[in-house]
Specification:
Trna Endonuclease, Chain: A, domain 1, about 30% helix, about 40% strand, alpha+beta, about 120 residues, 5 strands, five-stranded mixed beta sheet
Length: about 120
Amino acid sequence: MTRRDTGREGEDDAVDYLTKKGYRILRRNYRFGRGEIDIIAEDGDTLVFVEVKSRIGGIGLPEEAVTERKRRQLATVAEGYLMKHDIGEKDCRFDVVAIFRKGGQTEIRHLSNIF
């Protein structure tokens, strides 16, 4: 399985997970400039920008890959989305869905409002 396949499978799992929690998925893989946000969803009245990080085995936690640089990039893409869609005053937040697979087991962690 390639890294791209792992990422796509993780995003599919994240969409299923969020949908079951009552989120409404608006967009997947939204690109603005050189950046991308994996999932844009609504949680009630809140617009949620979701970064999905997947790992198969290995060391460390998937969410540790959301560095300060990545956070700045996510913020820039989110601002682009808000401007392009003329979204005024709306509560927004950034979440991470971390997916870890090892030995046939899948663990999903949802970290809300990471910054």
